[in-house]
Amino acid sequence: MSSTIVSLPDQSTARIPKINFITKENGLLSWLLTSDHKRIAILYLISITFFFTIGGALAGVIRLELLTPQSDLMAADTYNKVFTMHGVVMIFLFLVPSVPATLGNFLIPLMIGAKDLALPKINLLSWYLYIAGGILVLYTMISGGVDTGWTFTTPLSTHYVNTNVLTTGMAIFIAGFSSIFTGLNFIVTIHKMRAPGMTWFRLPLFVWSNYAASILMVLGTPVLAIALVLVALERTVGIGVFDPTKGGDPLLFQHLFWFYSHPAVYIMILPGMGVISEVISAFSRKRVFGYTAVAFSSVAIAVFGFFVWEHHMFIMGVSSYSMLVFSLLTMLVAVPSAIKIFNWTFTLYKGSITFETPMLYAFGFMGLFTIGGLTGVFLGTSGTDIHLTETYFIVAHFHFVMVGGMLMAYLAGIHFWWPKITGRMYPEKISQLAAVVTFIGFNFTFFPQFILGTLGMPRRYAAYPPEFQILNVFSTAGATILGVGYLLPILYLTWSLKYGEIAGNNPWQATGLEWQIQSPPLTENFLEVPVMDHDAYDYEWLERQKEKEVASAG
Amino acid sequence: MPDSPAIAHDELETGHPAHPSYQRHHFATMDQQADATSFAMWLFLLTEIMFFGGMFTAYLIYRNWYYPAFVAGSHQLSIFWGTLNTGVLISSSFTMAMGVWYAETRRKQGLVLCLIATFVLGLGFLGIKSIEYAEKIEKHHVPGLHYSVKSFVDPASDKAASEYGDKPLALDMARHTELYFFLYFAMTGMHALHMIIGICILGYMIFRARAGDYTDGHISFVENFGLYWHFVDIIWIFLFPLLYLISRHA
Questions:
Q1: Does A367 contact chain B (CB < 8 Å)?
Q2: How is residue A238 annotated by DSSP?
C-alpha cells in the first residue's frame, strides 16, 4: 500500500499565518455583522452542527423506542412528534444547507478565483433567516411539537391534528428563503465572478454540482413556500383549496409539496457528489475521468429531478397512465447518477490511491449511495412501489442516500477542507477509525430496515408485531455505533483547532485554486487576481509549479 | 507566502486601483457589479414566478373542474374597476420606466417627479382594489368568513348576476364559487402585498433621490426596482383576464 500524499511543512518552524480571515477582526460583532463568505460559512457550520446534534438525539430516541415491540418508552402521539421533528430538523435545518451553506459558501469564491460571493449582504441575510427558522423550530418543539410527519400531508395537517402546524410551517417558509438566497447567490457568483481564464469547463466539479443544486433551490423552494402558505390559510380561514367538501383537492397539496420536495433530495445530494469528485481526484492523483460527462450529469439530475415528483403519490389515486410516465422518468434519473459512479470508478482505475480519511468517507459514499440509488429504482417501479411504500424499505432507501450518501460526503468534505478552513490538520488515525465506525454502524442500522420493509413493517408507528423485534434490535444497536461514529469527529475536530499539526498551504498536493493560497485564507482570498491557465485537476501543472518554486528558491 | 504578512496587507489597503465609492470592494469593475446585481434581480423574479405559479396551477385545475362556478364568480367582479385599475398600473409602469431613463440621463428633477407619480399611481391601484374588496365583504363573498352562495343559487336577488342573466347554479356547483373567490383573494392579495412592499421601497427611493442619489451614474438600484415593478405589473396583466374576463368571449 502506498503510504501517503500528505506533505506538511516542517512543524518546528511552521506557523499559522498571522493575518487571516479569522484573526483579521475580533469580537462577537465582527462575526455577526460580517460579510465575508468564509466567516458566514463558519457561522453556518456551527449552527448546522447544533441542529444536527438535536436531530441526531431525536433519531436516537426513535431507535430506542423501537427496541421493543410495544410502545413503552413513550406514548404513540409523542413518538409521532419525535419522528416529525427528527425529519423537519434533519431535512430543512441540516441536509439542505449542509454542504452548500458551509463548504459551498467557503469554497466557491476560492475555487473560481473571486474575492467573495456576488451578494455578501444577502449571504449574511440568508444565515439570519436560517437562524430565525431554526429558533421557530426549537420553539415548536418546546411548546408541544407537531405530529404530521415532515410532509404536512393534507387533510391531516389542515383539518385533523391540533399541534403546532402553523409555527413549523412558518419556520420552513423562512428557512426556505434562506436556501433561495444561497442558491441565487451561487448562480450569480458562478456566472459573473469567475477569474480570468476560468472557463466553464475549467471549473472544479464541486462548483458544477453546487450550481445544479442552486438551480433547484431557486426554482423549487418558492413552490414549497406557496404550498405552506395555502396550508396555513386552509387551517386558519378554511379557504377550501385542499378541502374536498368545498370542492378542493388534498392531492393538489401533494403535487405542490413534492414538486419541491423531490428536487430537494437532489439539492441535498448534488453538492455531496461535488465533494466526492474533488476527493476522489485528489487521492488518486488523476483528473476526474470524463470531466464533461460528470459536469453535465449534475445538470441532468437537476433537470430530470423536476419531472419525477409524482412517484411519491403512486398509491394516492393518481391516474395509472401518469404512473407509467413518472415511473419511466424516475428511472431516467438513475442514468446520470450511474454516470457519476462509473466515472469515479474509472478515475480510481490506475490511479495512485491513498487512504486518508476523506477518501475512506468517499468510498463509503460510493458503496452506500449505489445501494440507496438502486433501491430507488425499485421504488420508482410502480408495481414494487405499491408493495413497499410506507414501509421501512422507504426509510432504509432514503437513509442510504441521505445518511449513507450525503452525510458521508459531508464528512469527507469537512475533513478534506478542514486544513484549509482552520490551518490545522485533524488527527489522521482516529479519524480513519471514525470513518470505519460510521460505515459499520450505518450498515448495521439501516440494512435490517430493508428486510423489515420487504417483510411489511410499516413506517411511522411506535409499536410493531413481535416477530420484527430481532431486526429492530440490530438496527438500534447499529444506531449506537453510528452515534459514536458521529461523536468522534465533533470531539477530535474541536481538539485539532488548538493541537492539530500546522497544515501549510496544500497538504494534499491538490490542484484547486483554493489550495494555492495560505490556510486559513486572507479575508480578501487572493493577493492578486489569479489567472487560470490550465484545466481542473491538472496534476502535471502542479508539478511544474513546484519545480519553478524550487528553481527560484535555489 | 509573504514572510511579513503586514506588508502584503498594507499593499492591499492602498495598492488597489481607485474606483467610485459605490463600487463594492469584491468586484473587479463597475460593469461586473452592475451585471451581477441585475442578474440576481432576474433570478429573484424567476423565484417569484414559481411562487405565483403554485396559485396559477390551482386556478387552472379548479377552473377546468368547476367552470360554471368560475363564470358565475367572475360576473361578480366589476369590469369597470378592473379595467381602470389595469390602466392605472400600466401608467405606473410607464412612469417607472421614465424614471429609470431620467436616472440614466442624470436628471434629478425628472427622476423625483416620476418616482412620486409611480408612488401615487400605486396607491391609487390599492385604493381601487379596496373599493372592490369592500363590496365582496358586504356581499359575503369572502371565503371562510360567513361565505354566502345566495348570489349564485338565486341570481335574481343579485344585481350583478341578474345583469348577466346568470342561470341559478345547483347548490353543489354554487358552493364551488368559494374556491373561485379564494383564488381571487389569494392571487390579488399576494399581488397587492407585492405592491405594498414596492410602494414602501418607492417612498425610500424618493427620499434618497431628492438627496441626489441615483443621478450620479450609479443607477443599479433604480433599474432593479424598475424590474420588480414591471414584474408586479405583468402578474396583474395575467390576473385581469383570468379573473375578470373569463367568460366574456361567450
A1: no
A2: -
- The grid coordinates of residue A114 equal 473571486
- Interface size between A and B, measured as CB pairs under 8 A: 125
CATH topology of domain B55-243: Four Helix Bundle (Hemerythrin (Met), subunit A) (1.20.120)
Nearest to B1 among A220, A233, A505 (CB): A505
Burial class (CB in 10 A: 0-12, 13-18, 19+), A295: buried
Q: What is the distance in angstroms between the Cα of B24 and the nearest Cα belonging to chain A?
A: 10
Chain B nearest-CA distance from A178, in A, is: 13
Check if A36 contacts B (Cβ < 8 Å).
no
Instruction: Look at A247 and B26 and tell me if their CB atoms are within 8 Å.
Output: no
Partner B contacted by A16 (CB < 8 A) = no
**Structural element, H or E, at residue A130:** helix A120-142
Assess B146–A contact: CB distance below 8 Å, yes or no.
Answer: no
A219, A240, A529 member nearest B50 (Cβ): A219
Return the C-alpha cell found at B5. 504578512
Q: What's the number of CA atoms in the CB half-sphere (13 Å) around residue B8?
A: 17
Which residues of chain A have a CB within 8 Å of the CB of B26?
Answer: 114-116, 120, 193
User: How many whole angstroms separate alpha carbon A79 and alpha carbon A26?
Assistant: 44
CB A294 within 8 A of CB A121: no
Tell me which residue in B39, B53, B179 faces A188 most closely, judged by beta carbons.
B39
CB atoms within 10 A of CB A49: 16
**B229 alpha-carbon distance from chain centroid:** 6
Tell how far CA B175 is from the center of its chain.
30
Report the complex ipTM. 0.90
Query: What domains appear along chain A, each with residue ranges and CATH number?
Result: 29-553 (1.20.210.10)
Of A178, A192, A310, which to mutate for an interface test with B (greatest number of B Cβ within 10 Å)? A192
Cα separation of A157 and B132, whole Å? Answer: 32
Judge whether B51 is closer than 8 Å to chain A, CB to CB: yes
Q: How far is CA A166 from CA A81, A175, A178, A307, in A?
A: 15, 14, 19, 29
Per-residue pLDDT 10s for chain A (554 aa) are 447 888 888 888 889 999 999 998 889 999 999 999 999 999 999 999 999 999 999 999 999 999 999 999 999 999 999 999 999 999 999 999 999 999 999 999 999 999 999 999 999 999 999 999 999 999 999 999 999 999 999 889 998 888 899 999 999 999 999 999 999 999 999 999 999 999 999 999 999 999 999 999 999 999 999 999 999 999 998 888 898 888 899 999 999 999 999 999 999 999 999 999 999 999 999 999 999 999 999 999 999 999 999 999 999 889 989 999 999 999 999 999 999 999 999 999 999 999 999 999 999 999 999 999 999 999 999 889 999 999 999 999 999 999 999 999 999 999 999 999 999 999 999 999 999 999 999 999 999 999 999 999 999 999 999 999 999 999 999 999 999 999 999 999 999 999 999 999 999 999 999 999 998 999 999 988 899 999 999 999 988 988 887 777 65
Q: What angle do CA A328, A334, A340 make, to 5 degrees?
A: 155
CB-nearest to A19 from B9, B47, B54 is B9
Q: Which residue of B has its CA nearest to A258?
A: B54
Contact between A108 and A116 under an 8 Å Cβ cutoff? The reply is no
- Burial class of B120 by CB neighbour count within 10 A (0 to 12, 13 to 18, 19+): middle
